[in-house]
Structure formats: structure tokens, C-alpha cells
Specification:
The chain is α/β, with parallel strands linked by helices. The chain is about 50% helix and about 10% strand. The protein has 2 domains: about 5-180, NAD(P)-binding Rossmann-like Domain (Rossmann fold, 3-Layer(aba) Sandwich); about 190-325, N-(1-d-carboxylethyl)-l-norvaline Dehydrogenase, domain 2. It has 15 helices and 8 strands.
Length: about 350
């Protein structure tokens, strides 16, 4: 039986523990707070994130990282992107030497502009082939009800990708695998920012035409950055790309879209985040993505405008105005460069 440590008992970490348990894994869930760990062990619930949902009784919860990590075959990281470095610095000596480290995190590190797999390899001092990424249209609230969903597992080492795929395959959760870690991570991070922009459009009262344009041009930004970093263009046509983009931009369950809606309605970024009470990775990562794009000579006008709203207080209506006033050009596929 595959032994898995899931480090992080938030919304997605708890649900992914359920998936792993349903797939036949021996799962230990690490929680930052004793209240959640005690609740999971006593009643198999996590009311703070999933009220009314009962999780498998065989998921063991703890606040002791060394207990969770002991003898693990897979170590799943489900903490906010900007806390990953500090948390992993505390855990790395406890991670078994043969374990595959799996990131559920969709963000880019502030300051370094590193992808999460790069942060993991750097902090844990391991070969990148031991790091896998899970990313796709995976709204945790729906999966908590065991509604059908699919995802992408990415790892440079195909055998490790298959190990992770096997560990999280159930009758309601279908993972596909790829070796394109760069493409999967860029898609996962950028789609959060585009969802913020799409939410702003909703909050401003704009309809489907404006939202479709934002999503489509957002996909183009995602593909340009991915291409600049060596990703496979086909990744962005798959679950981790357009699949996750559509779900995150269109679903009211999406935290990033919801923050965007509040911004469009006139809230500040701080107030909008306070309302959802959980991390919006798009808010945290937008400037880091802009920095990464500039270093690689990639144009990302929507992402840049979102960063202006978040960090400089620009009015959301100006995002759409800036987008619409750009010089007209050929669409991708009809020009020299993506």
C-alpha cells in the first residue's frame, strides 16, 4: 500500500487526501492547527473548509510533521505558494530519500519568480525528476462530493508520474500524465490571474463576449510565457491549460474569480481577500508572473493590468480599457511569433 503524507489541511489538501484514500493509499494529513487535526480524527470532518462533508475514516490527521512524513512514498504539498519555502525548510530533513514530492500549488514565488517545482528542488536539495505536479480543473467543493473530475500529473521522470497517477486514480477522479512540468505549472499559475481579470469583468457588469475575449487572450498570454520557457504548446490545449482556465474563470466556486468580482464591484484587494478568507494565488503571484515574463521578453498585457489593480490601486475598468485599446494585430497562428 502506498503511504502518503499530505502537508496542508486546507480546502484542496483535505479533498486530495480523500481522493488518495479512496484510491487505496494509507494517508496521513498534516494540519497547521490542532483544531482541524482533532476534528478530522474525531468526526472525519473539516467544517472550516467543507461544511457537511464527511471524509474517509482511515485518514489520520496530525500536527506533527515528522509523524506525517515518516516512511512516506509520496509527499504531497498543499500549502500556499508564498509559504512553501519556509515550510519545506522545516520539513526537508524528515522527507524519505526515495519519496516523490508532489505539488498541488499553483503559484510563482515572490522575489525569485520561481515555479513551485523549482522552489521544491532548491529547498529540498533534490533532483527535479523527484518532483511531480498535479494541476487541472479541480474545484475542491465539487470533488468533495465525488463529482467526476480529471487532472494532469506532470513529472520529468515518467515512472514517477505513473506512480502518482496510480495513487490518485478513482472512479470519479481521472489523472492523465505528462513530462511537461513547465507547461503545467505556468498554466496553473497564469490562469489564476486571468480569472481575476474575468471576475473583474463580471463585477463590472460585462457579459459573455468580454469574458470570452479575456479568457482567449489570457490563454494566448499563458502560451507565450510557456513557449518562452520551453513548454510543450499542446499542454495549454489540455486539462492543465484551457480546462483549468475555463473552470477557474467561470465557476462561482473559484476563489480567484470571486476576488475579481469583488474588485470589479469596487472593493479593495485587501477587502476582497478578507471576504473569501482563503488564499487567492492570483493576487499573490501576479507581479511575480509579470517579472518572469519581462525577464524572458514576453508580453502579458492582461496580467500586467491585473498587477496594476492589485498593487497600485488601478480601477478595474481600466483593465478592460487598456486591453481594448491595444494596437490591433494578427491572431496567433497567423503571425511569425506566438
Amino acid at each position: 500500500m502506498t503511504r502518503v503524507a499530505v502537508m496542508g489541511a486546507g480546502s484542496w489538501g483535505t479533498v486530495f487526501s480523500m481522493i488518495l484514500s479512496d484510491a487505496g493509499c494509507d494517508v496521513t494529513l498534516w494540519s497547521r492547527t490542532a483544531e482541524i487535526a482533532d476534528e478530522m480524527n474525531a468526526t472525519h470532518t473539516n467544517e472550516a473548509y467543507h461544511p457537511g462533508v464527511v471524509f474517509p475514516a482511515n485518514i489520520s490527521a496530525t500536527t506533527d510533521a515528522s509523524v506525517a512524513l515518516a516512511d512516506s512514498d509520496l509527499v504531497v504539498l498543499a500549502v500556499p505558494a508564498q509559504t512553501l519555502r519556509d515550510n519545506l525548510s522545516l520539513w526537508r530533513d524528515e522527507i524519505p530519500a526515495t519519496a516523490v514530492i508532489v505539488s498541488l500549488i499553483k503559484g510563482i514565488e515572490i522575489g525569485t519568480s520561481l515555479r513551485m517545482s523549482e522552489v521544491i528542488a532548491d529547498v529540498a536539495q533534490i533532483d527535479p525528476s523527484r518532483v511531480a505536479v498535479v494541476s487541472g480543473p479541480n474545484l475542491a467543493t465539487e470533488i468533495a462530493e465525488r463529482q467526476p473530475a480529471a487532472t494532469t500529473v506532470a513529472c520529468l521522470d515518467e515512472e514517477s508520474a505513473l506512480r502518482v497517477q496510480d495513487a490518485c486514480t478513482t472512479d470519479y477522479f481521472r489523472p492523465y500524465y505528462t513530462t511537461d512540468v513547465v507547461g503545467v505549472e505556468i498554466a496553473g499559475a497564469v490562469k489564476n490571474v486571468i480569472a481575476l481579470a474575468n471576475g473583474m469583468a463580471v463585477g463590472l457588469g460585462y457579459g459573455e463576449n468580454a469574458q470570452s475575449a479575456l479568457m482567449t487572450r489570457g490563454l494566448a498570454e499563458m502560451m507565450r510565457l510557456g513557449a518562452g520557457l520551453g513548454a510543450n504548446p499542446m499542454t495549454f490545449a489540455g486539462l492543465a491549460g484551457v480546462g483549468d482556465l475555463v473552470a477557474t474563470c467561470q465557476s462561482p466556486l473559484s476563489r480567484n474569480r470571486t476576488v475579481g468580482v469583488h474588485l470589479g464591484e469596487g472593493m479593495s484587494a485587501e477587502a476582497a481577500q478578507a471576504v473569501i478568507r482563503t488564499t487567492s494565488e492570483g493576487v499573490k503571484s501576479c507581479q511575480s508572473i509579470v517579472d518572469l515574463a519581462r525577464r524572458n521578453g514576453v508580453e502579458m498585457p492582461i496580467t500586467e493590468q491585473v498587477a496594476q489593480v492589485i498593487h497600485n490601486g488601478k480601477h478595474p475598468a481600466k483593465v478592460l480599457q487598456a486591453f481594448m485599446s491595444r494596437e490591433t494585430r494578427a491572431e496567433e497562428g497567423h503571425e511569425q511569433d506566438v
